[in-house]
Amino acid sequence: MRFLKKIKEFVHVVYTTKQYEAVIIYNDEKISIKNSENIFSISPFKYGFYFDKFNLDFKKNQEIQLQYYSNEVLISSNIITYLSRNKQLYIFEIKETNLSTLNSFKFWFYYYYNYCKNLGKMETTFSVQKTIASIYATPRKVYICSFTSLNGNHILFPIDLVIENKNQDTFFYSIRKSNSAVKEIIKKKKATIIYSQFNNRKNILELGKYHSITFPKLSKLNFKTTESKVFKHPIPDFLEHYVEIENIEEIDLEDQTLFMGRVLFKKLPPKNYKELANIYFLFKNN
């Protein structure tokens, strides 16, 4: 049973959306929200998508369906409840999740094992794990948030609760309030979001520990850094593509803060750039 020890909740993959689709059912029609949706909070589950093609007129607490497809096959269906709207960003709460793969013995075996392995963690109840699996049934792109506090302390940490709207030069990114950087980012109203690269995933993922512990001096890291053009925030020397963001609003999502930002400077990756992404382990080969 050694192979069981290798099971992890998330698998790290090269980001792609070619085979995936995300849709909502609105007035009995399927509307694609691909590449413009993400979860913003786990406790409770807050979800959002950006849509500017035409006005969507939701009523308070209205329930709609959110569906994910892989190779045109439905892999998960969710009931989401409308909460609020901020311009073209619509925010919902996830109420119910159904995974089409639940009838698979393999799914149940791996899923139940992972559930037991995570007992005692904050996010672990059967329904919560099922919702996490649903939202991460498609790859979620990993970025690095870079920031320098008012007293000159630098910090770098990975984030994946992000919606990027390249057409409007806007970014939406959510950070857990337990991260000490949140209050500082609110004060300074700016951050640099760095595009990750799959080949450098080890160094990127190691930065995850700084969500909850003090970030060391840059000289103590196992890599060197350069500076962003406008804010002079640290950029790992193995990455070169990033956007510098001026935050224009913050939304309180209980355990998370959702930042809405306007891009001031951007150095975007090329089309063939292999970005790092997370996907729930059961859906890696979908």
If you had to describe this structure to a student in words, what would you say it looks like?
This protein is mainly beta. It folds into 2 domains: 2-138, Pnp Oxidase, Chain A (Roll); 140-279, Electron Transport, Fmn-binding Protein, Chain A (Pnp Oxidase, Chain A). It is built from 5 helices and 19 strands. It has helices at residues 2-5, 105-117, 126-135, 181-188, 201-206, and strands at residues 10-14, 20-26, 29-32, 37-42, 45-50, 63-70, 73-86, 89-99, 140-141, 143-148, 154-159, 162-165, 170-176, 190-195, 225-227, 234-236, 242-253, 256-267, 276-280. The strands form 4 sheets. A 7-stranded antiparallel β-sheet has the order 3-2-6-7-8-5-4. Strand 6 and strand 7 (73-86) form a beta hairpin.
Key descriptive features of the protein:
globular; 2 domains; 14% helix; single chain; Pnp Oxidase, Chain A; mainly beta; seven-stranded antiparallel sheet; 286 residues
Topology at a glance:
Layout: H1 2-5, E1 10-14, E2 20-26, E3 29-32, E4 37-42, E5 45-50, E6 63-70, E7 73-86, E8 89-99, H2 105-117, H3 126-135, E9 140-141, E10 143-148, E11 154-159, E12 162-165, E13 170-176, H4 181-188, E14 190-195, H5 201-206, E15 225-227, E16 234-236, E17 242-253, E18 256-267, E19 276-280
Antiparallel strand pairs: 1-19, 2-3, 2-6, 4-5, 5-8, 6-7, 7-8, 9-19, 10-11, 10-14, 12-13, 13-18, 14-17, 15-16, 17-18
